[in-house]
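ARCHIVE CARD
CATEGORY: sequence design from structure
SOURCE FIELD: tokenized fold
FIELD CONTENT:
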């Protein structure tokens, strides 16, 4: 039970989202773009490619029908993740935080051990988090970033005050990037650092995940 709980805590901020499947039509100001973040475009095709990788992995699973039926919100989940990645990159850069390939590999080894092996880690990430095998390292990189960002800010992620420090830093980075989301995907909430109608309270879970995984590594 404890191992399953810790594995569940690996859920990425990028995947704690819910929204309807959307079409690929761009907005009038940025045709073909799902969002513009810090002046850089996130193409609809990029969002679709990430979603397609998950669909391929789901179809290869013995639980394919169930997995696909429960992930109809996949496109927006992936867009949210792509936007949040850029916010986290900005926040960590501002704090002087860097992440090495070795740290990501160490995190993956720890996550696999906690999950019961590499195969089980891939299964859990696909089933619970809509993460394809090739996307796992990006999710774990976020966990390393969040943990190191908290350390740089002197924030204890096991305490509400520490979570607020990290949340405020991410919100500040979000505002500075002037995020413009294609209205077909919704609008961006800088304060919550998420698409405005998302329901998952990522800040209450993802930073804790980073803290617990870091402590167990």
């Amino acid at each position: 039970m404890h191992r399953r709980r810790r594995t569940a805590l690996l859920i990425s901020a990028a995947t704690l989202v819910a929204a309807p499947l959307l079409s690929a039509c761009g907005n009038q100001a940025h045709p073909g773009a799902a969002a513009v973040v810090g002046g850089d475009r996130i193409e609809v095709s990029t969002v679709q490619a990430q979603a397609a990788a998950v669909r391929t992995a789901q179809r290869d699973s013995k639980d394919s029908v169930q997995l696909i039926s429960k992930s109809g919100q996949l496109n927006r989940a992936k867009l949210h993740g792509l936007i949040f990645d850029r916010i986290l990159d900005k926040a960590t850069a501002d704090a002087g935080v860097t992440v090495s390939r070795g740290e990501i590999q160490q995190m993956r080894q720890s996550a696999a051990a906690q999950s019961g092996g590499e195969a089980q880690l891939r299964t859990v990430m696909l089933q619970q988090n809509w993460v394809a095998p090739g996307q796992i390292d990006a999710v774990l990189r976020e966990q390393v970033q969040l943990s190191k960002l908290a350390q740089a800010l002197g924030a204890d992620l096991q305490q509400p005050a520490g979570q607020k420090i990290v949340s405020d830093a991410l919100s500040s980075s979000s505002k500075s990037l002037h995020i413009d989301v294609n209205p077909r995907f919704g609008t961006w909430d800088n304060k919550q650092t998420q698409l405005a109608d998302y329901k998952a309270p990522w800040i209450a879970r993802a930073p804790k995940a980073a803290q617990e995984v870091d402590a167990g590594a």
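CARD ANNOTATION: The chain has nine helices and five strands. The longest strand covers residues 33-37.
SHELF: design records, drawer C
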